[in-house]
Amino acid sequence: MDKSNQGEIGELQTVDLDMEWVYLLLKAKKQGIHADEIRRFFNDRTLKAM
C-alpha cells in the first residue's frame, strides 16, 4: 500500500493505516461484503471526484 499516515514528528506510519484497512475488511467480510465490492465502491467514488 503506498498511502500512509504521517506522524507528529514526520515519520511515516504505514503500519497503522494497513491495520485500519485490515480491520475494516474483516468487519466488512463479517457483514458479507467482499473486498472486490469495496474496491469497486472506492474506484467509483474516485472517478466521480475527478
From TrEMBL:
Domain of life, per lineage: Bacteria
UniProt xrefs under InterPro entries: SinR/SinI_dimer_dom, SinR/SinI_dimer_dom_sf
Membrane spanning residue stretches: none
MF GO annotations: DNA binding; protein dimerization activity
Keywords assigned by UniProt, alphabetized: DNA-binding
Example of a GO biological process term: regulation of DNA-templated transcription
Record-annotated Sin domain positions: 8-46
Protein's UniProt name: DNA-binding anti-repressor SinI
Species classification: Bacteria, Bacillati, Bacillota, Bacilli, Bacillales
